[in-house]
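Structure tokens
________________
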Amino acid sequence: MLRLIELFNSVQGEGSHAGLPCSFVRLATCNLRCVYCDTPYSFGDGEPQDVKSIVERVVAFGSRHVCVTGGEPMLQREGCIALMQGLIESGHTVLLETSGAVSLEGVPDEVVRIMDVKTPDGLGLSESSTKFTRIHFDYENLERLRSHDEVKFVLMGRRDYEWARSFVAEHRIAERVKHVLFSPSFHDLPARDLVSWILEDGLPVRLNLQTHKYIWGPDVQGV
């Protein structure tokens, strides 16, 4: 049994799959509180749904891709893994959106992990604080990444950019995954500024814009 917030069919708005028809399964609860969070409604309890019924509803949408997101979906580890396995068996390409702050042990190899690593300003904390170090990331997840995975950083400004730049270099992220995504926080960092920094430093990263916010607006749910 899973606690479900919403289930809908749209197009993927981010990452290397942006623009493709995609179903979204948003699961309840989150262990982090990002400053820029655009889905605080996912913090609630959600509605109980069994894995089989969710898979059947996704199949009925007819999209090949499906994104399991939250909140933090891996907080419902057992059910989430069962769901992803069921979606794989139904012929879907499964994307998992996760902060990486919760262990990804047991995630099927076929799943594309889109790991959204939280930055200091994104959590409203100092990078040197004990709390930030403790909560922002499970570093064992670096070894659980696969070559088809993606690692994303949502950046609020220059300090976040420099922190993410160092994180990518220190942990050889570009060598571990297919794409490293740098995304400007929609209301905080102009995309043109981020582009200029990436080009100036010659970083091996991909600009990531939340295209769904440009299509429907920044505050629309279920798209």
In short: Residues 76 and 220 are 25 Å apart (CA to CA). The domain at 2-216 is CATH 3.20.20.70 (TIM Barrel).
